[in-house]
Give the backbone structure.
Amino acid sequence: MTPQTWDAELYDARHSFVTGYGAALLDLLDAAPGERVLDAGCGTGEHVAQLAAAGVDAVGVDASPAMVRRAAARFPGIRVSVADLRDLPFREEFDAVLSNAVLHWVPEAGRAAACLYSALRPGGRLVAEFGGAGNVSAIDTAARALRAGHGLPEAASPWYFPTVAGYARVLEDAGFEVRAAWLFDRPTRLTGADGLAVWVRMFAPHLLAGVGDPDTFLAELGERLRATLYRDGSWWADYRRLRVVAVRPPR
Ligand code: BEZ
């Protein structure tokens, strides 16, 4: 995973939609009490806590020590630890793996898929959602055009936003049987008049690399995007999700 550093409290305060939208994913997972479930990229622990409260034997891992510390502080007693999705220590231990809004931070998709496969027992399932092809393209395109206008170099992207076909191939190459995969638009409300600027600072700092005056840059970005992403008194990020259900075939 990218060596992204997170402000875990800001993440909860301003970006709780990340876990909020995950509720649909939990429904899709449909974990039964007693099942062993890994939350791969557990963030601040909400889903691990919800699963544990429902009697599921839930374990969370996240690459960010700050997120794991906050998860443990918010939900004492849940099992969470620091681990990289490209190098998980689990072997055939879980009935299911859940992953929400994380895999787009792992460009080494084949390595991550192989780790998720290894973590599952034969017959176990993967239910995942993350940014798919075209995700946040309005924000990304406008910020890149603005950078070019300021004479700044191309910013390398830390994101991986695959198509349905591209990610199905990644999963199949890792040994999974893909049961379903779909791509859908999910405009996502960013709270506050500064919602867009807060989002860029938190999730897209690469787009600010080398920018002398980030406040002015972000104000200009807002002007460029207002017509497309500001409506009903709020900023809306042009999120596009890729959701997948896949199974590690039984032996
Ligand atoms: C997403 O959840 O789609 C996302 C979050 C941060 C950066 C890029 C995408």
Summary: Strands lie at 36-40, 57-62, 79-82, 94-100, 120-131, 177-185, 188-190, 230-231, 234-237, 240-247. The CA atoms of residues 194 and 235 lie 8 Å apart.
